[in-house]
Amino acid sequence: MSAPVVAPSESEALPTIAGYTHRVASHCETGSVRNLCAFAGLEVTEPMVFGIGSGPLFYYLFFAKGPSTFPLIGIRTPPGTVVKNFGALCGIDLQATQLSSPREAMARADALLAEGVPVTATVDMFRMKYLPSFLRVHAPFHFIVLIGRDGDRYVVSDPYSEKVALLDRADLEAAWETHAPLAKDNLLCYLRAVPSAVDWKRAVVRALKRTCGDMLGPPLVAPALWFVGVAGMRTYAKKIRQWPARYRGVALREGMIFNAIAFEDQGTGGAAFRLMYGAFLQEASRLFDSRELDELAQRMIEHGRAWRTTSRKLVTLTRGMPMEDQAWPDWFAAHGEELRSGLDAVGGKFEEFAAVEERFYRDLRAAASRLA
Length: 372
Prior knowledge:
It contains 11 helices and 8 strands. It has helices at about 30-40, 45-50, 80-90, 100-115, 170-175, 200-215, 230-245, 250-265, 270-290, 290-320, 330-370; strands spanning about 55-65, 70-75, 95-100, 120-125, 140-150, 155, 165-170, 185-195.
């Protein structure tokens, strides 16, 4: 799953760090880390970064409300976790620092750029004005790589942009600190050194065990973690069925759309992350010459495709729902049973997904123990 190398063309005259190659990616955090590693002389695929970084997770944040007033959900580990895990397991000096203000973060970034060190920034995509309009949404956990500075503008390598771009200092400052839920304000990452050799097998086995532990939870405290991992998926499935009784009108319509975006498109998406994890397992199976890992990879890829189909179903249910509260009573009287039936089916699919992932991670944990 190597990404295409994008020629600098228009960026050739920009003051960029020599030797850095911009490449697009499927996901911003893993793509940024892969590009930093390539600059340091270590070639690694994006799925390998995601897998060793223990990217898969699910959590239902009942205590945190999103812009739609629905509780927030997460379909991967929090931003920055992949960076931390990948660096630690591979013996890479990959620093992640969360500073107190965007100005302090920019001062640190300026100093690193002056040394010829690329720097990732975790920003709100809405402020990335070089992106097409359909990508400019308020997602305050987007990873970009700063690779140069031209006065009050930064040269940006964005994994979602085909070309290197320029970003005004004022936009970077506003994007780096949003105070939004789940945001990592003023987080920057940079790579100091890579080892002469990485023990990929050791890193993969340890990562597999960590990911299984994250999704299945420790047995003794599992009841207290009903909102995390497989248990969180089951909780979420039950909540989906309760939506028509808890929400009405525009709030319900927007909440359904927000959830579909959150677990499918925002931050790459639940299905895409599972497909990426399947690709990681395929690569790991070749590393160990393991038919068992390859079969598990195929199971996860099939599961990711089913997840994507269900995400689309949730969006389909919102079509025709009124955009004004005044029209809600009449619409619900005519279509309420259809809506309840549709959400019951979606909730049922997520219960199935939880069962699929519970079996999968138990089998993966057993496979990992045989690799060690």
